[in-house]
Each structure stands twice: as structure tokens, then as C-alpha cells.
Amino acid sequence: MDLSELLDIATAHQASQKPIRVHCCTSTGCRAAKALEVFKNLKTAVDDEELSDRVNVVGVGCMGFCGRGPLVQIDPDQMLYEEVKPDEAASIIGAIKGGTAIALKGDVQHPFFARQVKIVREHSGKVDPESIEDYIAVGGYRSLYKAIYELSPAEVVDEITRSGLRGRGGGGYPTGLKWATVAKMPGDQKYVICNGDEGDPGAFMDRSVLESDPHLVLEGMAIAGYAIGANHGFLYVRAEYPLAIQRLQKAIQQAKKYGLLGSQIFESPFDFKVDIRIGAGAFVCGEETALIQSIEGGRGNPRPRPPYPAQSGLWKCPTLINNVETFANISAIIREGSDWYASIGTEKSKGTKIFALTGKIRNNGLIEVPMGITLREIVEEMGGGVPDGEVKAVQTGGPSGGCIPASLLDTPVDYDSLVAIGSMMGSGGMVVMDQETNMVEVAQFYMEFCRGETCGKCVPCRTGTVQLYALLTKLLRHQATQADLDKLESLCYMVQETSLCGLGISAPNPILSTLRYFNHEYIELLQTPSYLNEKVNDKVNGKVTAER
Amino acid sequence: MSVKTLKIDGIDIAIEEGTTLLQAARAAGVPIPTLCHLDGVADVGACRLCLVEVGGSRRLLPACVTEVAEGMEVQTNTPKLQEYRRMAVELLFSEGNHVCAVCVANGNCELQDVAIQVGMDHSRFTYRFPDRGVDVSHQQFGIDHNRCILCTRCVRVCDEIEGAHVWDVAQRGAACYIVSGLNQPWGEVDACTSCGKCVDACPTGAIFRKGSTTGEKERDRAKLEFLVTAREKHEWTR
After folding, report:
1. Cα–Cα distance between A86 and A72 in angstroms, integer?
2. How do residues A392-433 score in pLDDT, each as one tens digit?
3. Which domain holds residue B48?
4. Closest CA to A394 of A385, A404, A402
5. CB–CB contact B173 A460 (8 Å)
6. Do residues B22 and B139 share a domain?
């Protein structure tokens, strides 16, 4: 495979396409709403209407508006249909011939779509994730070629550094610095790992990227391998994402067949193979050292850092480990240049970030927005606000993040601003809560999650989370006193400061942020004489029988 | 090998490169409480009792796995550390069923010693009174999971010194327990050589010799040291 062959594939594939492409989302979210039946019916309808010489029906990845799935889009008309039912499929095809579609029409000019800036999700919902030709036709693997033939490994690292890209897994560590560290480490054997163990409740960005555009991630990993001098990459995906795994396996096979992965990529001396490792359902394996242990076949326990994986990672070799979304940015940076990337976003947070906008909000789904956009713009303009109510808080960063009150909605979304107000970017979950939400219950929910997901290695995280959960439960039963509340707070700081890995360090964040912004809700739950008297009176009056 | 100079609690100390802060502190005569650390086996940094404050570092660092560096300024006993250590020990006491009065290790127990060292007289946290079971299927030994603090010393000593790897950790979080063989009763694990190193390594009364009663557990810690020296330096003396 050389460049001309790659371009030939693109041209041949484009030529084979029919004038009209009907895109039907076949990702997990829409599948749950019978997208596969819609897809089948669309295909049948094309045959029935004898349009098969003009119309292609393509199963594509996520289009973003997951709350209104299944989605069908007609290219080049830009027509979008939402909540398509299987029996409405035929009318959509009929509309191409001039009939009337009975399916719900979507508004592609809505801020939900219009405010997005798509870098990672550029081809998502447009290309068939199971066809490498589709990806090559939109310019795929050309960045890899450019990296190998036009740039030295050091220049690639330099491009990434100058782009200002920061790790999209949540911590926001400068990606270029990480790459430079691994590249400069001595040693013949190095590894690239892609962390696809997305586990935050309410977050599904990485799943969508892997399902919708698997080659984009593979290309990013290969470029990373070239830049740091690694010939082997691992994609760690959680077992709960079977469709992503299946599509990745297919993508790897296709890329190998074309010589875009494996030995002598683009007939250069650069070798890079990618293997998939499937997680076994542990949230903590998203922590890099636990993930490495898991790939090695051990129990997924984190270990103290340093040494960082960049020095001693997989099988004690220097290892580059980045999140799915981080790798998905690489191809665009190499193609368009670091200056272009650095022009998007804020001073310290560059580029875009995908958020999974969920909760009490009109428009649920995935959005890719430039860094620096305010929470208000996301929630009120793009998300359409809370149906029948007002926003009370926005939770970002999952169990590691915090709750941001409505009064701070004008905060720009970037790494540092979110940390400053007690939350964090996290991997990109964004849960909107309305006035009905009890913030102590929210804190309890996240603590229950952490309590169940701690690996149990270090004391503060293993037993501290259990005690924090017990204290919150006590509060919610109106049995807690001010002393319990003080204990809750001091234990939060203890767990935060003494835990071994990021899970424990960030586990108290939901409590601390709600204590900070919704303190009155905690105070209201405290045991009061009047509440106790009521209880006693209820017992005396026989309203409560034998409480044990 | 070069030498690093550093300050621990204001005491100047010069020590070989590659030693840990814990070793350096001990050499300087500064006591740091530990539970999961055991001389002779790998450190895991799990009990978090040996956390210290290092100048220039935002995070508290575990002394057992942090190597000394030139010019380090280490504080081992600040009020914050004292409070966190006490809390950690309280959490351990509330997690299991640690009733000294009926324990084989009473008076000879590292958890008890650490509790006294950090000044813990009661636990502010609710006792959980777990029902974790006791395995006495082995001919000579028994394990009472209720007294286990999951320090994994037994796991490491069996794996690294004896080479049998009878023990490991099963489940996660609050459900964690030390598992023998492939989750079999200890007595049915063929790999167990009945060497008793896990009994010697256990800081509490969780793993014990059968037939011993309250306060009777004794350990032969010198045996482990002897074996490690014998293997590493080929010196067969104790």
C-alpha cells in the first residue's frame, strides 16, 4: 500500500456510491429503540420502490441526538428524521420519490447541532463503521501516511505538544508532554495503550466514538506508536461494549488486510499491531496502573505511582496510555496542523470535548463543543433546558466530579475552571438535575457506586467509602446529628488525601461539592427535636406499629 | 552507588540511593507506623499508615514505596498525619471484628500496637460486625477472616518467599477476602506446604496455629529474615 493506492481506494469507493445516501444509525442507543428493524425496512423499501440504482442505505454510527433515536438522515438533502418507527421507514424512502414522510422531522439548524464543532465526531454518523473504504474515502489514514513520510517521530510529538491537546480521560495531563516522556525513555520495547474502559455512570462518549469511527482511534494509536517508537498497541475495552468490540475487531482485520496496521505500514520500516483486551467489569480498571495489571493478566489493582507508566508500564516497559477521545483527536491535528487545533478553545484547554448530556433535559445526547463554551450555553441553548422546571445543578465528571449549582452556570467549560469550582471535566458525563432533585441523595448515589467499585486494596477507599455511604444514609433517615455531619466532612478529606489511586482520591468529590453548594439540604436533614417528637407522637397514636 | 542527604523531622541523614523513606526514617530512629509493610517482601503501599509529608509535593506519599532523593524535607508526624492515621486505624477496627479480649494475638498484635501508637482509644465510626467466616480445614492452621485487615502480607510471603502462592485476594471493595487456592477450603489446597510463614507474617490474629488460645499466638519473624538473607546473600545464620 502506498499513497496512490490509498487514493485509488478512495476514488473507487466514491465512484461506487449512488447519488443519495440514507444514513441510519445502528449504534447501541438507537438499536435499543429498534434501529435495526428500521434499517432493514429502509433497505426493503428501496428495493420495493425500485430506487436501488439511486439510493444507498448505509448503517452508520452515532449522530448524537440519542434521546430521539432511531435517527435517519438523507444525504445530500440534510433531511433528518427522529424517533423513526420501523413502519415509518417505507414513507421516508417514498419521500425521496416525492411522497410524504410520516416520520418526525428533525431540525438540523437547532443549536443542539448548530453549536457543535466536530473534530472527533467529524465522520461519526456519516461513515459506515464497518467499512474501511468509507473511512478512506473521507480522508482516512492519510494523517498516518503524512506522519510516516513527511514528519520525523520528534516532529509528530512536537505537533501534538504545540496543539495544546490535553488528556480527555479526565485528568487533563498535557498529551504532548506524555508522548515526549515515553519517546525519550530508553528501551527497545514500548507500548501504546488506548483506555476504553469508560465507566462513569451517564457517560457514553468513548462507546460512541469506538462504535461510530473505530478506524479514527486505530489511526491515532498508530501515529502515537510511530511517534514514541512502539510497535505494539493494546485497546482496552470494557466487556459491556460488545458492539464496539465487534466493530474494532473488524476494523483491525480490514486495516491489516490493506497493510495499514501490522508489518511495514505503507511499505515503510514502521510496524504496528493492535490487540484488543476486554475488561471484566471493574470500574477501577480505568485507572492506568490497574488497567496495565489487567492487561498483564493480573488482578486489576492500582499500584502506587511513581513509577509512572511512561517509565515503567506494561511488562515494565515504557508505556503510553491515553483515552479513546485523545487518540481520536490525533489524526485531525496531524492533518490540519497544530496551529489550527490550538486556535480552538481557551488559553489552557484547546480543542473540543464530547459530553454526554443526560438527566432532566429536553435534548439528550452526545455533543462535541469547543472548550470554553459555558455550561449555560450547553444546558439551556443546546440542551433546551429542563422540561417543566428549572435547572438546579449540573453534575460533571461522574463519581469523580462534583455538582455545579445553577448560579455558576456561566462558568466556561475547561479543565481549570471546572476544578476551581470543585468539579472536574472528567471523561465527559454531564447530568442535569432539576429542582426536584435531592442533592444528598445524589451524593449517596455516587458514594454507593464508589463503595461497590473500589478494588479494596487501600484502607481509606475500601472502608472509608462504606462509612461515608453509611453516614449519608443516616442523614437521609433523619437520624444524623451535627457531629455526624462534621465526621462526614473530615472523613471526606481523609479519603481524598490518603487514598492510593484516583478512584479514592476523587470519590468524596460529589459529597464535598454538594456540601459546599447545597449545605442547607444537609442541615435540613439533621435530627431535630420536633421531628423526633413527631415520631414519638406517631407511635403513641398508633400510627407506627412496632418499629424495629 | 551514590548517597543522598535529606532531612526527616529535622534530622539530617545521609543514606544510599534507592533506599525508601521508611528505611531512611528507621535508620534515623524516627518511628513510622506500618501494617502492610513486611521486611523481606515487596511493598504495596496499601495500608496508608506510613504516609508522610514531603516538601514540594502536594500529595502525601507512602514512605514504604517512596525512594529518598537529594534535599528532601520529610515530615512524618504532623497533626494532620496523626489525625489521618488515627482515622485509618479506626476504619480498620470498625471494618472487622477485632475483639482483643478473645483473640489469639492479644498482646502480640501489630494492629493493637499501632492503635496504641496512634492514640486510638475508640472508633468514631459505626462498627460493621461482619460475618466473614472462619476456615479451620487445615490440619495445623486456621484463618479467621473476621480478624483480617487485608494487608496481603500472607499473599506476598507465600508467593515471594515460599513460592506456593496459596493465597490471593478475591472479590472487591467491602466484599474482599483472602482466598486460598481456587476458592477452596485451606485444607484442600495441594499447593500449601504447611510451612507456616503466613502465620508468622500475619500482623493480627487472623491466621493462627490451631490449639493456641487467647494471647498465645507467637510469631517467628526472624525466620523470614533468615530465609531472605540466605537466599540473597547465601549466609545461613540466624
Report:
1. 11
2. 999 998 888 999 999 999 999 999 999 999 888 888 899 999
3. 3-76
4. A404
5. no
6. no
Within a domain: residue B96? yes
Q: What is the pTM of this model?
A: 0.93
Residue among B46, B60, B174 minimizing CB distance to A457 = B46
Q: Are strands A20-25 and B11-16 parallel, antiparallel or unpaired?
A: unpaired
Assigned C-alpha cell, B7:
532531612
Verify that B67 and B111 share a domain, yes or no. Answer: no
Domain holding B129: CATH number?
Answer: 3.30.70.20
Spatial distance between the Cα atoms of A91 and B136, rounded to a whole number of angstroms: 72
Determine the Cα–Cα distance for residues A500 and A498; give it in Å rounded to an integer. Answer: 7
Q: Do the beta carbons of residue A60 and residue A80 sit within 8 Å?
A: no
Q: Do B60 and A462 touch (CB under 8 A)?
A: no
Checking ipTM against 0.90, whether it exceeds it is: yes
Query: For chain A, which domains are there?
Result: 18-108 (3.40.30.10), 140-342 (3.40.50.11540), 352-434 (3.10.20.600), 439-524 (1.20.1440.230)
**Which residues does chain B have within 8 Å of residue A458's beta carbon, measured at their own beta carbons?**
45-48
CA atoms of B80 and B53, how far apart (whole Å): 10
Instruction: Tell whether B238 is covered by a domain.
Output: no
> Which residues in chain A have their CB less than 8 angstroms from residue B88's CB?
459-460, 494, 498
**Do B70 and B115 belong together in one domain?**
no
- Per-residue pLDDT of B183-238, as tens digits, reads 999 999 999 999 999 999 999 999 999 999 899 988 888 888 888 888 888 888 77
Chain B residues touching residue A487 (CB < 8 angstroms): 124-125
Among A478, A156, A492, which Cα is nearest to B84's? A492
The number of distinct structural domains making up chain B is 2
What CA–CA distance (Å, rounded) separates B64 from A184?
28
- Per-residue burial over A349-379, b if 16 or more Cβ lie within 10 Å, else e, is bbbbbbbbbbbbbbbbbbbbbbbbbbbbbbb
Query: Could you tell me how far CA A281 lies from the centroid of its own chain?
Result: 17
**DSSP track, A111-153:** HHHHT---STTSSTTTS-TT-HHHHHHTTTTHHHHHHHHH--H
C-alpha cell at A186: 530508553
pLDDT score at A545 = 52
Measured between alpha carbons, how far is A524 from A223 in angstroms, rounded to an integer?
55
Our CA-based measurement puts residue A506 at a distance from the nearest CA of chain B, in whole angstroms, of 13
User: Would you tell me which residues 515-534 of chain A have a C-beta closer than 8 angstroms to some C-beta of chain B?
Assistant: none
